[in-house]
Amino acid sequence: MAGAALLVVGRWKSGRVVSTREETPSGRSIVLDVPGWGGNIAGQHVDVRLTAEDGYTATRSYSIASADGSDRIELAVDRLPDGEVSPFLVDVLAVGDELEVRGPLGGWFVWKPEQTEPVQLIAGGSGIVPIVAMIRAHAAAGSRARFELLYSVRTPSDVFFASELEGLTTTYGRTTVYTREVPTGWPVLPGRVTREVLAEHTIPASERPSVFVCGPTGFVEAIADWLVELGHDPARVKTERFGGT
User: Fold this and answer.
1) Centroid of chain to Cα 23
2) Out of the domains of life, which is the source (predicted)?
3) Residue among 107, 164, 108, 115 nearest 143 (CA)
4) CA-CA distance, 107 to 87, in Å (whole number)?
């Protein structure tokens, strides 16, 4: 499947929306049927192209939350106030509409079921989307590789795929850090992920885990620097980021 997936990246395909679901106050998941898609690897992404009536086009890349060999894919999009594409996808797109998509894209930030080493997943906000694909693939394969997730979000209502992540906790370990508001009875005050939090709540470098970090640029760069300071091999720290540099 991996070889086939990488051969079709240049072709635009039409996908039909079969369902949508509100994930957060500003985020939505979208399921598309894309004839000829043929599946993707956990962690890959897709280009989405919108075309206006006057011919103007806007293209953005979005991580794929699904990971299997079917022609159905799931995206999750967070609305950007000044965005050209995300407001349409979150607020306007309806079941039955069609989207142009191209992919799957990317072969570096991916996890495959044949990998057996420990895996540390670290996500900020909507950066959880490709991480969810990895967790789903891990569960579907019945993998016994150790999976741990550190997820940083602003508030409990900002958690993407909240129910599913809760239901899959038997297949992976999870630590959630809330930066602005915590659930009732939460044992710690809100705060950002720090070097100390990483040291306490992630797989140690001595176990040589593969580490996947996805989120806003500043978050990803800080996390990657701290991981190296904590002794992780830079070659084993894979990152995906969004937003300005």
Assistant:
1) 13
2) Bacteria
3) 115
4) 28
pLDDT at 72 over 50: yes
Q: What is the pLDDT of residue 97?
A: 97
Q: Say which residues have a Cβ less than 8 Å from residue 163's Cβ, sequence separation at least 6.
A: none
Task: Give the length of the chain.
Answer: 245
- The pLDDT value given to residue 2: 35
DSSP code per residue over 81-105? TT-SSHHHHHHT--TT-EEEEEEEE
* CB neighbourhood size of 170 (10 A): 7
- Please measure the distance between the N-terminal and C-terminal CA atoms of the chain and give it in whole angstroms: 33
Nearest alpha carbon to residue 62 among 97, 112, 15, 95: 15
User: Pairing state of beta strands 147-153 and 119-124?
Assistant: parallel
- pLDDT at residue 144 in the model: 95
Residue 114 lies in a domain: no
The amino acid at residue 64 is I
**Domain residues for 62?**
2-105
Q: Which of 149, 142, 152 is nearest to 120 (CA)?
A: 149
Residue 113 lies in a domain: no
User: Which of 78-87, 199-208, 231-240 comes out lowest in average pLDDT?
Assistant: 78-87
What whole-number distance in Å separates Cα of residue 202 and Cα of residue 22? 30
Q: Which residue has the higher pLDDT, 169 or 37?
A: 37
Q: What is the number of domains present in the chain? A: 2
In a shared domain, residues 92 and 163: no
